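Please, structure for the following, as C-alpha cells.
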Amino acid sequence: MASFSSACRSLVRKLSRAPCSAQVQRSLLSTGISKEAVGYHVGGGPSYMRGTVFWEPGKPITIEEFHMPLPKAGEVLIRTKACGVCHSDLHVIKGELPFASPCVVGHEITGEVVEHGPNTDRGITRRFPIGTRVVGAFIMPCGSCHFCVKGQEDLCADFFAYNRAQGTLYDGKTRLFLRGNGKPVFMYSMGGLAEYCVVPANALAVLPDSLPYTESAILGCAVFTAYGAMRHAAELRAGDAVAVIGIGGVGSSCLQIARAFGASEIIAIDVQDEKLNNAKKLGATHTINAAKEDVIDKIKEITGGMGVDVAVEALGRPATFMQCANSVRDGGKQVDTSDQIKIIGSYGARARQDLPQVIKLAENGTFDLENAVSRKCTLEEAATAYEDLNRGRSSAGRSSRLCKNFCG
C-alpha cells in the first residue's frame, strides 16, 4: 500500500477524535501491536507520529502515520532531531541490499530522550535522563552475545540476526505499526527517518550542547564507520601513508581521522573534482582523479615507488577494490569498509567504546561537521534527497541531512 485510501483516511480522522473501540483494539492486537501502544501518549503529548516508508524497489517512498513506538526494557524513545541520508539506505531502496519491507530507513540520528522502556536498568536512566541530547550508532549492540561480551560490538550477533536479517529489534518484533490499520513496518537499524524512534540504549552516546543536532547526525554512521576502519582495522599510526578510494561520507571522514592520527601522506581518490577539492579541506595532502589519471601509477609516484601503508576502499566496487589492493606496499594493509573479511574487514565500529570517542573528536574540532553537510531538507523531501544521492549530487558524498524541524 503506497498511500492511504480515502476510506482509510476517514477512519484515521475518526480515530484521532475518539479512543479506540474494543473492535479496533482487537484488530490492532491481531497484527502484533500491544494494547498499551494503541493509546500510548508521550508525556501527555502525541499518540502518533509520521515516518518515511520504503515499500518495495521501484515504488516511491511515502510519508505515513504510525502509532507512537513503544520502547521495551533497555530501550529508549528518541524524538528525532536529524537523520542522515546515506548510501546504505539507497542500496535498500534500489533493491541492491536485501531487507525486509515495508520498512523505515534512516540509521544515523541525533535526538532527545523522551521515554525509557518499562523495567529499564537504573544505570541507563541515570546515564540518559529525559531530555538528554544523544547520538545513535547504526550498529546497535545487544550487549550480551558472544561478540559483545568480548568487546567486539561491531560483530554483534543479535544485530545481524534480528535487525539486519529480519528488520526487528532483539525480541524479534518491530516497534513500528501503521496508525491506519496497525500493520507492522520493519526497522532499518532504528528506522530514523521518522519523528520518533526506538533505540537500544547500548547504541546511544550523549551529544554535548556544543555540537549541533543536524550536522552531528553523521557521527553515528559516516564518522563512526571511518573511525572503526582506521582505529581497529588499519591500526593507523603516526607517519603512515594512507590512500582513501571514494570520497563519500565514510571516505571524507577517513581523511579527517587520518589527519588526526598523524598520517604523513593522505591521498584522496575519486572521479569528481568537486569532491577532490573538498578533500583538500578535510586533510588530503594529494588528490587523484581516477577518471583522468592511472591511480596505481600516481600513488607509486607520490610514495616513491613504495605504495601506501594503508589503503581504504570506501565504495564497495570490484574495480576500486582491485585499485586498493594494488596500492598497498609490502606489509601494508587494505581495509574494506563494507564487510568484515580479511583484507582487512571493517564494518562500523563499537558503539559503547568508540561513539563517545568520535563525539570527543568532533567536539575538539577534528571533524569539519558543517562542511560534511551539503544540504538540509525536511522529511517530505526525503525522496528527492535519495534521488539526488543516487545521481551523485553531493560534494561530500551525501546529498543532505534531514533536519527534523517538523518535530518541534
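DSSP finds 14 helices and 17 strands in the chain. Residues 222-334 form a domain with the Rossmann fold fold (CATH 3.40.50.720).
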